Amino acid sequence: MVIGFTVLIVVYFLFTFAGNAIKGHQLNQQESQLNQEIVGIQDKYQRLQALEQYLNSDEYVEQVAREQLGLVMPGETGIVAVPTQPSPTPAPDASDPNLWWEVLVQ
């Protein structure tokens, strides 16, 4: 009876140890995945900070002013390109489905 009780205790400890070892392995894998995710998020954060610095720079503001707004610096001459072919006019009965007030009504 003592041997049976001892065997039962040993088996209990073996199962407990095996369960803890498996759980420890799973936690190590989860920790590794989370560390990789942290590194990825830190990299993305650094890229966003660099983008923010560029968007706040005078270089970007000047580029947008020139390319999108057509502005020029004092002392420069602006040039407007006029197309040689006239653009086609839409038919009077055709309505543009992308008009802002039609989008709001829908």
What's the rounded overall pLDDT mean? 85
- Terminal-residue CA separation: 84 Å
Individual helix count? 3
Give the overall shape: elongated
Biggest pleated sheet: none
Percentage beta strand: under 5%
Structural class by helix and strand composition: mainly alpha
Radius of gyration: 35 Å
Instruction: Give a count of the beta strands, DSSP E runs of length 2 or more.
Output: 0
Poorly predicted regions are none
Structure at a glance:
The protein has 106 residues and is mainly α. The chain has helices at 2-55, 58-67, 100-105.
If you had to describe this structure to a student in words, what would you say it looks like?
By secondary structure, this protein is mainly alpha-helical. It has a domain of 47 residues. The protein is 66% helix and 0% strand. The protein contains three helices and no strands. The longest helix is centred in the first third of the chain and has 54 residues.
Write the layout of secondary structure elements.
Elements: H1 2-55, H2 58-67, H3 100-105
Can you tag this structure with a few keywords?
elongated, 106 residues, 3 helices, mainly alpha, single chain
